Amino acid sequence: MPQMPGLSPSPIMPMMGMPGMDLKFAEAEFVINSEEVMLPSRGLFYSNRKASVMVQHLTAKDEDILVSDTLRRKGTQFDVLLRKKIVDQDIDINTMLSGDKMAILIWLRRNGYGADYHVEVRDPQTLETFPAIVDLLKIKEKEVSHVPDQDGMFTYKLPICGKTVRFRLLNDREALDLETQIEGRAKMMGGIEQTVTMTLRSQIQEVDGNKDKFWIEKFVDNMKMRDSRRLQLFMGEVLPGLDMSYTFTNPNTGRTFQTGIPITMELFYPTQGL
How many whole angstroms separate alpha carbon 89 and alpha carbon 91? Predict the structure, then answer.
């Protein structure tokens, strides 16, 4: 075969396939590590019954999601992040419980930036605010002593009226949709938010075997306040998730107190302790 002008045979020419080989080596080098993360719900509320999921570690590329103003305004940055980092293909982010999602997010943050989370805390007694550090390794799962039945529901007997209700937990998407409905209803009701009654209507599926939605709505509206409060407390007890309460010490008074861990942008875009 005639040679092109100015070119001569080179011993390097047979090695033209090497860049492809280099690319394979690079792909192997840049594989993102994954680890198993246990779900507080142990999968009892999902059709696949998965007690854990495989989750990839955070990378610099994920910062694009966390700092996106567009996603932040929509309030979807954490869902977008979870969809990207959860390896399991049979996990639907929309149907996950909020406690399971928070457990994965805390794991991602701890492994991405470390366990020290810098926060500002207000002493409920003195009302003064001071900086503090939360050790994310100390956050544990809530102790849940009740499990749902085969339909994913719980049964509770109201102490005053004696009626038995069956209710289900709302997944994260349902809870967010409910918040929107509550806000919309408040605008029509002169600013009164029907948070308690609308939440109970959404969760209660039957009362003494009665599944009629209209009847349940009327029952909730006229429920004795003590029955309502006790039921809400029980619902909180059976909700799986993380115990987000934490013990802080006021550096000025030395007094210790327990309060919820504040969740701010510092959690996923820390400016301190790096």
Answer: 6
